[in-house]
Amino acid sequence: EEEKSLNFLEEIVENDLSAGKYQSIMTRFPPEPNGYLHIGHASSICLNFGLTQKFGGGTNLRFDDTNPVTEDTEYVESIKEDIKWLGFEWKHELYASDYFETLYEYAIKLINNGLAYVDDSTSEEIAQQKGTPTQPGHRNQYAGRPVEENLQLFADMRAGKYKDGEKVLRAKIDMESPNMLMRDPILYRIKHAHHHRTGDAWCIYPMYDFAHGQSDSIEHITHSICTMEFVPHREVYDWLIEKLAIFPSKQYEFARRNLSHTVTSKRKLLQLVNEKYVSGWDDPRMPTIAGYRRRGYTPESIRDFCDRIGVGKRDNMVDLGLLEFCAREHLNKIALRRMVVFDPVKVVITNYEKGSELLVAENNPEDTSTGNREISFSNELYIEREDFMENPPKKYFRLAPGQKVRLKHAYIIQCDEVVKDEAGAVMQLNCTYIPESKSGADTSGIHVKGTLHWVNAKDHIAIRINEYDRLFTVENPANEEGEFQSYINANSLTVLNGALAEPALKEALVSDRFQFLRKGYFVLDKESPKDLLVFNRTVTLKDSWAK
Ligand code: ATP
Ligand code: MG
Ligand code: MG
User: Fold this and answer.
1) List of domains in the chain
2) Structure confidence at residue 544 (pLDDT)
């Protein structure tokens, strides 16, 4: 393996460790449990867990659950499942809501030090007093409240004396700072809402800026990695840690990873679910980890993808083709090969008199440890309708009148006669086979260029196939005019009934990965009924869509 150069965050960690700044590092992945994880989160997971895999230390899973209204335990469970599936183990499972009492004490400390005050202004007044990036803001009469009064009012806020929005607690920093976030940011707001973990214990909730850095500090996170939009928050982050004199966690930012032809925002993904554009968060078309899992992606391929896109400082849009490439790379190595005819036309072998025989077929030429299977052959078979042409152009190597092809793992056949119905549609192809051409024991000396997949008409199962395409027709639906939903690809799912498969697929498990020869990579759908197996197409064999 060639040595990969370190990304800029790995360099920071390596320097901190070699300078003796830390004995070991701690990172965290801090999802808000308000939706399922998507491919952008996978980037952040691979980055945070990747750092401690490489340099030692640990990564916490911390649920950033300070917003009671949008959060739910269903999301907590899905997030845990997805991280485990991606192959990572967290050190501690933690919840920002577990720190509510500590955060409250921190707020009191700030008030006692004259660094926070209770403000009765409306949010409009606060926004207005804050000024603009080019004009300084100014403090109002509440900023001068004495410590005692602030302590009493803040206690009353907690005790539920006030309605939502009647008061807030603000840090007293600098109303003239060029950084708008430093202009006396709100630390606490009143919200009489039920929380998924703390129930009705609280009616005041800390704002992101007062929860995140303090949670990092409580957990002794050394490198707190977030996305670029938090750059202006770093000043607040550092100010609070300094004034509270607590463990000095440090924030570092990297650019969000966005994937083309989809949306990566939990809010928009929730809309797709609620408005029934998809069947749920784990619909195989969704860019969620759960969606990719159901679609047949492997954790290895997603980790490989995150690794290849790397980390940077500039926002970028990654082509969906790269994710598919990573899937093909891995699936090619592990997928069991099977033969499935999607659109069958019958082949009768007129000179085959053995009745039937068993042929040996390798399960995966890339991995001989997967062994062989037996497939039955008879005088009646199905091949793909598109693999026959009555009047073929030059260099057509599939089946045509008078032309020979090899049937995979079987024999060379020649088409002698085309049987049609009254309307002229091809009903059956009468062929002869060459007995000496058996795969693995071919003494016929005949060379053919085309090899076709097939199934035995007397021994097969019917399956259903879901063929998926991009969910959106444009590269960046969130950036287009109008609603992003109007760019949904109407043909993102094609259901194919009546595909015919070799019987080995009866034993398929959801954890198996398959390559249907010449068709693509497939996985058994997790909700597949027992009497009709449903397979999802993960990716085609080749990059097939025009950019
Ligand atoms: P969304 O906009 O989808 O709700 P979020 O950032 O609000 O995303 P969080 O649950 O707060 O979602 O995210 C957890 C972590 O994942 C954060 O550290 C966040 O920065 C990171 N993250 C989220 N989206 C991306 C992305 N597209 N690329 C890289 N990291 C991301
Ligand atoms: Mg967030
Ligand atoms: Mg969000």
Assistant:
1) 8-254 (3.40.50.620), 266-336+463-539 (1.10.1160.10), 340-452 (2.40.240.10)
2) 61
